[in-house]
Amino acid sequence: MSEDRLQILKMIENGTISAEDGLKLLDAVSEKKEDKKTTEPIKWVRVIVTNDEAEKSVDIKLPAKLFKILGSKIIKHVDTDIDMEAILEMIQSGQVGEVMNIIADDGHVVSVSLE
Question: Quick one: which of 111, 95, 115, 107 has its CA closest to 52?
């Protein structure tokens, strides 16, 4: 039995919290553990820029944590409207795969994927 569950049961036993409140806390602890098991964190953010002949001119693969810090600085050098907020939300939610594919004014294609 986990320490959290044991502590909640002791609080119920001592009368610190009601049985109903204890049940809510136990449910919350269980949900928290289930969320940790089902969501695998995003480890990499890949940005690929290709020209109109489909030749790669940029292929960057950054750790997701580093992308959270440097991503906006990298993206601002690409002439597109990439939504950093949306990418960060997708990283947080654990979404995997290509999340954006944008064609810039100069014909370059910017692809952002989460791995």
Answer: 107
Could you tell me which residues come within 8 angstroms of residue 71 by beta carbon, excluding any fewer than 6 positions away? 45, 62, 84, 87, 88
Q: What is the DSSP letter of 15?
A: T
The band of 16, judged by pLDDT with boundaries at 50, 70 and 90, is confident
Question: In this predicted structure, which of 10-24, 27-41, 89-103 has the lowest mean pLDDT?
Answer: 27-41
CA angle in degrees (0–180, nearest 5) for 54-76-82: 65
* The two three-digit tokens of residue 39, written as one number: 């969501």
Q: How do the domains of the chain map onto residue ranges?
A: 3-38, 44-114
